[in-house]
Amino acid sequence: MAQNYIRTLFTDAARAMQDQAGSRSAYARMEAGGEGSPDLLGKKEAMFLAARDSFYIASVTADGWPYVQHRGGPAGFLKLLDGNRLAFADYRGNKQYISTSNLQAEPRVSLFLMDYPNRRRLKIIGKARIVDVDDDPALVASLTSPDDKPAVERIYVIEVVGFDWNCPQFITARFTEADVATAVAPLTAELEQLRSEVAQLRAAATPSNPQQGE
C-alpha cells in the first residue's frame, strides 16, 4: 500500500475505528515517511495501465454527491505521462457532462482499474483538469487516432496524488470474449481436425452405389 494514498484518505474518524479494530499500528507504519509527497507510478503500474481497456472514475458534484462513470477504449487508452500524470481522450457521448462539470467545482477524482482474469485492481486518486483539444494538439495526437469516431471533445489530465494495489480476496475472475477465444483456440483447432478425420472415415466406409443391371 502506497503511503500518500492512505495518508490522504485516512481521516481521524477512520484512524479511531482502526484503533478499535486493532489495525491502527500496522497502518501507522505504512503511513510513516514521505510526508506530503505523491505516490509515484512506476514500471509495474505503467504495465498494468497499458493493458487496461476500461476503468471507473469517481467525481463529486457541487452539492457533494459522489458520481461514478465508466470509461472504455482500446487497451492503453489511459496513458501515463511524464510528471506522474495520467491522461485520456473524452469522446462525444450522451451530452450529460456530469463528470466534466463536477471538475469545475472540485478537481479531486478517484479511479478504479480492474484486471478480472488475474484478480488484480489498482486504485488511484488525483486532481483532474480539462484540456481543450485546440490548446494542446500534440497531447491530443498522443492520445487519439485520426480515425477515431465519435469526435474527441476534450482531454482529461490527472495529477496523481496516490495509488493502492488492493486485496484480491473477493475479486471474481471474469473473462472477455477475446480471452475466451484465445483460451479455447487449441481446442477449436483440434475439434476441426477431428471433424475432418471423421468425415474422411465416413466417406471411406460408405459403400459405392451398385451399377445398374447387376
Describe the structure.
The structure is a single chain. With 214 residues, the chain is an alpha+beta fold. It has 2 domains: 1-37, no CATH class; 38-197, Electron Transport, Fmn-binding Protein, Chain A (Pnp Oxidase, Chain A), CATH 2.30.110. It is 36% helix and 28% strand. The chain contains 7 helices and 7 strands. A 7-stranded antiparallel β-sheet has the order 2-1-5-6-7-4-3. A hairpin with a 5-residue loop joins β1 (54-60) and β2. The chain starts with a helix and ends in a 9-residue tail after the last helix.
What gap, in angstroms, lies between the N and C termini? 87 Å
Give the C-level CATH assignment of the largest domain.
Answer: Mainly Beta
CATH fourth-tier homologous superfamily of the largest domain: Electron Transport, Fmn-binding Protein, Chain A
Number of continuous helical runs: 7
The percent range for helix content is 25-40%
Strand order of the largest sheet: 2-1-5-6-7-4-3
CATH architecture group name of the largest domain: Roll
Largest sheet data: 7 strands, antiparallel
CATH topology of the largest domain: Pnp Oxidase, Chain A
- The average pLDDT value, as a whole number, equals 90
Number of domains: 2
What is the string of SSEs from the N terminus onward?
HHHHEEEEHEEHEH
Number of strands: 7
- For the CA atoms, what is the radius of gyration? 26 Å
